[in-house]
Design brief:
By secondary structure, the protein is mainly α. 87% of the residues lie in helices and 0% in strands. The protein contains 5 helices and no strands. The protein starts with a helix and ends with a helix.
Length: 126
């Protein structure tokens, strides 16, 4: 009798955990898609913010180099490097690429490894 009650209780508990697990799995894809969207949005913002000083250094360095100011080529080089990083980041985290990854994920494909590595807890929080 006691073993029967324990088995029924255990079975009911497992069913409850299974139901919780199923509801968590149903929510996870939407959360992951939103996290990818938040990641891409923050990286695009970073690209734009980095582009501002990059443009300044690039422009100032070009003008100063043309005028023969000492140290101007270093400023120009810094502007070129920052501009390259900003453009590269803008391309890697473009709206088109975000849409492609989210659409593929919603169709059952895995999120690419390089994107999964960048996802942090803050991207999953609202």
């Amino acid at each position: 009798m006691t073993s029967h009650v324990l088995r029924v209780g255990l079975f009911a508990g497992l069913l409850g955990l299974s139901a919780i697990s199923a509801s968590a799995q149903a929510v996870a894809p939407a959360d992951s898609a939103k996290a990818v969207q938040r990641l891409f949005a923050s990286r695009r913002t970073g690209s734009t913010i980095l582009g501002l000083p990059a443009g300044y250094f690039f422009g100032y360095g070009a003008v100063a180099t043309a005028r023969g100011v000492d140290g101007a080529p270093v400023t120009l080089g810094l502007g070129v490097i920052l501009s390259g990083v900003s453009i590269s980041k803008g391309i890697r985290f473009s709206k088109d690429r975000e849409e492609e990854i989210v659409t593929a994920y919603q169709q059952g494909k895995a999120i690419p490894k390089n994107i999964r590595r960048r996802l942090k807890r803050k991207h999953f929080k609202a």
